[in-house]
Design brief:
Blueprint lengths: L1 E5 L4 H13 L4 E4 L10 H13 L5 E6 L3 H7 L7 E3 L3 H11 L3 E5 L5 H13 L6 H14 L4
Parallel strand pairs: 1-2, 1-3, 3-5, 4-5
Helix pairs in contact: 1-5, 2-3, 4-5
Length: 149
């Protein structure tokens, strides 16, 4: 299952991504406003989606706001979340291979739909490399979550 969090700026993009994921037969849980007419607070939806990932109810999270920046900042405040803001497919692939990222952030106002769908596919289809050097680095980052090394 994928947890998708979005604010008012991400509604249209979310609809495209959800349709794409449904075609891929991927189960989705959504956290966000019913439409983009009224401004909403992205941290509220980042929290809900990230908690689904932390609890293990969702394998991954996808967060969408205007630029993706706010969502990624909010997501990375949660222990156990490694959120990457990606604007290209190479970065989406690399963050899964090297960082074992579990949440992807996207910006509706900075990406086209076609590219966003490519980024989503690259993120979801790329496995973690499990190379020792990457595991070691992720373990170092996890220590930051506990207040430093």
């Amino acid at each position: 299952m994928i947890a998708i969090g979005f604010d008012h700026a991400g509604v249209a993009f979310k609809n495209e991504i959800v349709a794409h994921l449904k075609k891929r037969k991927i189960e989705i849980v959504e956290f966000g406003p019913s439409d983009g007419a009224i401004a909403s607070d992205y941290p509220d939806y980042a929290e809900k989606a990230c908690k689904e990932v932390i609890k293990g109810k969702a394998a991954y999270g996808i967060l969408i706001c205007g630029t993706g920046v706010g969502m990624s900042i909010a997501a990375n405040k949660f222990d156990g979340i490694r959120c990457a803001l990606c604007g290209d497919s190479f970065s989406a692939k690399a963050t899964k291979e090297h960082n074992n990222a579990n949440v992807l952030a996207l910006g509706n106002r900075v990406l086209g739909v076609g590219l966003a769908l490519d980024i989503v596919d690259a993120f979801l289809d790329t496995p973690f490399s499990k190379e020792e050097r990457h595991i070691k680095r992720i373990e170092k980052i996890a220590k930051f979550e506990k207040g430093g090394r």
